[in-house]
């Protein structure tokens, strides 16, 4: 047993750090050791519990209802509102789309209208549930275009089952004009979902602290559902999210039951049946421990860090904000003297993980930051590393993709990408095979990201699916 734990620790040493405030993507760190400890202990205590049957594990139902109640108070929900704990933001989004579709069984070709900046989870929902995703371009401020959204809805209002808004959008940190979007949806009897997975637990406190936050909660008439993640800025262990509905009737299509077999009657509130009670217990323990005053303090700290980074970026040549952030997410662009992908590599070399984002439409590649409270005490160090990284990226110059490789990519059909095509791109990108069918990731990813960036979105998807397929191969012990 001790050998397995030792190997586990050795494997984990290869991962990004989840604590310490130096990983500005994927993880959300409060910087409080006691919060982390309480969450982990609760997860361990409930790791064997099963949320499939609330009558068998009533403590899980009690914790879920209390978490939902806390969130509904935070988000200005009416007394009629209800909610469900899910495994994460993607499941919350999937269920919001599924419920909107199933609430309109008479619609044979359902569609939803969403800004181009909406999270990719909506595209996953469209793929899974046969709901057409109608994308609307955003304005120069990266916020949803209300007039364009209205026009898109009115192309087929009888088939439109959902209008989507973000609070904020992940890529750019911008809150959509929810008041206007919800109003146009309500006027046509269409649901409006606000994806607040990343902002839902900090924006209410931002408003309380006097920051300028556009209205987006259930206080906005026409908002029918909201998703908010607990494992983001509620600083709970992975993975818990909430899907909240204004009324039980709006949630009802989300619930599933089946007695069409000889076993127990299946009854589920989420996509999962069996589900560990650990994440739910961890989230409950953290929220109970931190409480409303604690979250206000953590929000004050994270926004102080955001403001300091925003101010510091203005002093770094060749780097600027794409748009002024309205929450805890920042997108940075470079000038022609360097590129975002190399800046990300240079930051990694200095012990900081920041996320590269590919170009999309007219928006160039960006350096994406998800700021946590734990980053606050390291802002000076972070800005120094960022300035050094930009200078190093300038010294090496923008990464370029061989024109022949660009031509090769442009000639490929993403719907018919063969193993030979993929092998050729692996060789061109430096992802050298490590054994039969294997891959070897380079230490620096700028050239790989630049190669992906020149590919059209459909080809980018095909390449990454092929890449994931190659990565996910069994390790045999026979």
Automatic annotation (TrEMBL):
Molecular function GO labels: aromatic-L-amino-acid decarboxylase activity; pyridoxal phosphate binding; transaminase activity
InterPro entries: GrpII_AminoAcid_Decarb (IPR050477), PyrdxlP-dep_de-COase (IPR002129), PyrdxlP-dep_Trfase (IPR015424), PyrdxlP-dep_Trfase_major (IPR015421), PyrdxlP-dep_Trfase_small (IPR015422)
One GO process term, biological-process aspect: carboxylic acid metabolic process
Keyword set, alphabetical order: Aminotransferase, Lyase, Pyridoxal phosphate, Transferase
SUPFAM superfamilies: PLP-dependent transferases
PANTHER family linked: PTHR42735, SPHINGOSINE-1-PHOSPHATE LYASE 1
Stated family: Belongs to the group II decarboxylase family. Sphingosine-1-phosphate lyase subfamily.
Protein's recorded name: Aminotransferase class V-fold PLP-dependent enzyme
Species for this entry: Nocardioides flavescens
